[in-house]
């Protein structure tokens, strides 16, 4: 079942100086439990596409459906989780208060939802940090808290906008494994924006490569099952990994120089 459907989505910006076409005729669907990565050169509209899916922007033309409902015109709005490069934790709130903030904003806070949030916190190894404040945690721990805050509202679709890019490489690799295993265990559907080809291969079921602005879908790569089902760290060691990396790298170079 398709949890997300985009049909001929186009987005233009109008400024005082010019009208700019950011995305053009984007069409794809995402099945429940799939992990999709968006790759492409800087400025090709990857983050704009996430903003459209989240309902933060409205397409100039085309339509977006989440769980069969038009976005962003549904009455309550789709339950979407958003995880960014920065964790944006409130420094004056405890970790428990931070991870339950989304529940409170949505009006879903209850003893049951609190238990769900604290259970997620326990699962990612931070159960003993619930009464701490963000400045008492490392960068990797803060990103794990941001992950729990996103999962605590039980979203049907997760949007990940380069959530690991500000971390050191070792922490990034560990967090990739944690996020991947957590989402697969919960059968969550996710879309990741990244500039890192290796990260996209290691974490995804499919990779969608966009052209330079205006962003169009140039090609979609489906990962072999043995890579798609492996933990990201293990996937990077698979014999087919380097071959896929070179294929996508050359395709990205071709797109950038011939578009």
From TrEMBL:
<dbReference type="GO" id="GO:0016887">
    <property type="term" value="F:ATP hydrolysis activity"/>
</dbReference>
<dbReference type="Pfam" id="PF00005">
    <property type="entry name" value="ABC_tran"/>
</dbReference>
<dbReference type="InterPro" id="IPR017871">
    <property type="entry name" value="ABC_transporter-like_CS"/>
</dbReference>
<dbReference type="InterPro" id="IPR003439">
    <property type="entry name" value="ABC_transporter-like_ATP-bd"/>
</dbReference>
<feature type="domain" description="ABC transporter">
    <location>
        <begin position="4"/>
        <end position="237"/>
    </location>
</feature>
<protein>
    <submittedName>
        <fullName>ABC transporter ATP-binding protein</fullName>
    </submittedName>
</protein>
<keyword id="KW-0813">Transport</keyword>
<dbReference type="InterPro" id="IPR027417">
    <property type="entry name" value="P-loop_NTPase"/>
</dbReference>
<dbReference type="InterPro" id="IPR003593">
    <property type="entry name" value="AAA+_ATPase"/>
</dbReference>
<dbReference type="InterPro" id="IPR050166">
    <property type="entry name" value="ABC_transporter_ATP-bind"/>
</dbReference>
<keyword id="KW-0547">Nucleotide-binding</keyword>
<dbReference type="GO" id="GO:0005524">
    <property type="term" value="F:ATP binding"/>
</dbReference>
<keyword id="KW-0067">ATP-binding</keyword>
